[in-house]
Amino acid sequence: MKNLFDIKEQVVVITGGTGVLGKAIAAHLAEQGAKVVIMGRKAEVGNAIVEDIKAKGGEAMFLTTNVLDEAVLEQNLKDILDKYGRVDALLNAAGGNMPGATIGPNGNFFDLKVDEFQKVLNLNLTGTVLPTQVFLKPMVAQGKGAIVNFSSMAAFRPMTRVCGYAAAKAGISNFTAYMATEVAKKFGEGIRVNAIAPGFFLTEQNRSLLTNPDGSWTQRGEDVIRQTPFGRMGRAEELCGTIQYLISEAASFVTGTVAVVDGGFNTYAM
Questions:
Q1: Of residues 96, 94, 100, 95, the one with CA closest to residue 117
Q2: How many domains does the chain divide into?
Q3: Domain that holds residue 63
Q4: Whether 165 is catalytic
Q5: 211: phi then psi, degrees, rounded to nearest 5
């Protein structure tokens, strides 16, 4: 019987692949037989991830990228096609936040720095649109492919502080739905576009917001855990199964969805 979740030999491109979540996803997909292309700005970190994957018998390569520079992305695509000849899946995991795009508990809306707000929108939203434009091309030529964008809990409900980040992630959810229809209508059912919305996972981006220097939870960290029925933060590897499902044949009739992996955070109401 065919294994619907089989991703062996798939070429999977991961932007933001050097982050905590990207690293865990890359390692899992490589273990499952995918050829993983890790893309990011930190070459030392990226190359170390590749070495670790290869040491365990997997196949991977690292490419330095800038998700806001189309010329760089086009060169990345050329390098990937030169080595592997195809792109089967794109994971748009690049993103981030900036202090000026947030509003602290002792501040108000007038403290928002619009230039940093715009930068956060660009990094998260445009930094998803541009890689999609570039890496969709070989999928169209192949007549087959899968794109998984990274949304957030902040896209579902207005959260305090993260003004710019939440706006960008809400845009990503909308863009995902739009692109699912766009590619299916224009290029056929072989190309699917979905998103994943992680709950709260400790990353370098949010660590200072959720934990104190001594490792204990901040008030916000405690609030998150209280709001999560599972009573804890997620572990990076807990995203891997959903990602594998979305890029596999098991999800061949799934497009335009935002898959939530959050320990119940988004459904809980006191």
A1: 100
A2: 1
A3: 11-199+234-260
A4: yes
A5: -130, 150
